[in-house]
Design a protein that fits this description.
The protein contains six helices and eleven strands. By secondary structure, it is of the alpha+beta class. Helix 1 crosses helix 6. The relative contact order is 0.16.
């Protein structure tokens, strides 16, 4: 495992896996019906998130991570909010212990100044927390007045699907377009580890192998992701 010395290290480790795992959540939500026809409800007392559409309903255990608010201009971890306690904030407390262990202020401190748009900040904390907590998916929602609340979701129906080179090629391209990864070598190696790819090194870069093929990632002289070459077949 690569050394962890900053929040950016944790982000680099987590962004690809988080994006990949969100595909599993999106697929489950789409099974309920089109987004325009779906509704959601979060019961924090019951720790339950419910998504309902014309084709069905999906429920998952909800863990409140925190909220990004434009008013105070900060992210507030749920464990630091006196309104919440107990199992609802247990995952946030797990992240806090990780932040204390590796001396990472954004994961350790109760309140963190926003360094971007609230939803983007919330998603970054979700990505990091999801990996720290074992690869959980996340959901962000409008909490009013521009505040974005963040949840980790847990359900047997969100168990990770087998690694896919086809999906990996898409995930790599979409995350690269967002421009948030700084250390691509680290990010790809972590993605391979957490999603179960076989990783090999070749002169042209790093190759992720899965039952449905391979995705070879080339890195330029500055370590940025260049091309992603796929060789796919039916799994």
């Amino acid at each position: 495992m690569a050394r962890i010395s900053s929040f950016q290290d944790v982000l680099d480790d987590s962004l690809l896996t988080a994006h990949d795992r969100q595909s599993d959540l999106q697929g489950r939500l789409e099974a309920c019906g089109p987004e325009a026809d779906r509704t959601w409800d979060v019961d924090l007392n019951a720790r339950m998130a419910t998504f309902t559409g014309p084709a069905g309903t999906f429920t998952a255990t909800a863990h409140l991570l925190g909220s990004a608010a434009p008013g105070p201009g900060s992210w507030l971890w749920s464990w630091a909010n006196p309104q919440y306690a107990g199992p609802l904030v247990a995952r946030a407390e797990q992240v806090r212990r990780f932040g204390e262990q590796y001396a990472i202020p954004p994961l350790r401190d109760a309140e963190v100044p926003l360094d971007g748009e609230p939803r983007q900040v919330a998603r970054h904390f979700c990505a990091a927390a999801g990996l720290i907590c074992g690869g959980l998916t996340h959901y962000t929602l409008d909490a009013g007045s521009g505040t974005v609340a963040a949840l980790l979701l847990e359900s047997p129906e969100l168990a990770p699907t087998p690694p896919s080179a086809i999906r990996a090629a898409r995930v790599l391209a979409e995350v690269a377009q967002a421009g948030q990864v700084r250390n691509w070598d680290r990010a790809i190696r972590s993605y391979a580890q957490w999603r179960g790819f076989t990783l090999s090194e070749a002169p042209e870069g790093l190759t992720l192998a899965a039952p449905d093929g391979t995705a070879t990632c080339t890195l330029d002289e500055l370590g940025r992701l260049g091309q992603v070459k796929g060789n796919f077949h039916q799994a």
